[in-house]
Design brief:
alpha+beta, 11 strands, disordered N terminus, PSTPO5379-like fold, 7-stranded antiparallel sheet, about 270 residues
Amino acid sequence: MSSRHSFEQQPGPSSSALAVRLAARSGALNTHTSGLASAHAQGNLVILPKSHAGDFLRFCQANPKPCPLLGVSEAGDPALPVLGEDIDIRTDLPRYRVWREGELVDEPTDVRALWRDDLVSFVIGCSFTFEHALMAEGIALRHVAQGRNVAMYRTSIETVPADPFRGPMVVSMRPLRAADAIRAVQITSRFPAVHGAPVHIGDPALIGIRAIGVPDYGDAVEVMPDELPVFWACGVTPQAVLAAARLPFAITHAPGAMLVTDLLHHRLAAF
């Protein structure tokens, strides 16, 4: 932990972004970050060798719905000052994923031992930002109320390729009543930096999801008879793409275990 700061208790909705990062850095926080530091934007993470960074940047630019970039580091630098004070990308997420040849090989809480001078960090916008906007408008989110991670699914929607990166879009799902679903489209359209409007509403089979009760990532949440499943593009998409690309080495966040930035939600609204 940084000698300038200390952290002694679990963070919550009213915590500062720095407090959440310090909790992760100290090992006090090792689970999902949904609902924490509620004023602040969170980000998905992809760390790649510099030799693949340019291609991944092209992939993000070609796929702004699942991969809206919030920040990119200099090679070998674990700091991201554009996103927050005292960020150390190697320690400040609750949990990471390590990939080798496209296979998930580890889920550590700290990647300092794996750090290299050629690694470039990409931070991608997260739907946890627009969740706060939805709840502020009175739209209830069941997974938040139940303290669960959001449900995420691989789909049959193909991303725009940028070799060697290609593969299926991953989506996050929130069940909503029809009137709330319409309002959610209006609200989230204001946040293109964190996935924007939904990519699909209704029948999961139309986007290749066979079992809505069995998500590929995150936690299952019940869809009530009077609700529609509403699907947004998700920043876990790069993990499906990295598996397909079979890169020798990559690091990502564990689904739901985000980097909490100093960026404020309202500053990411388009209008």
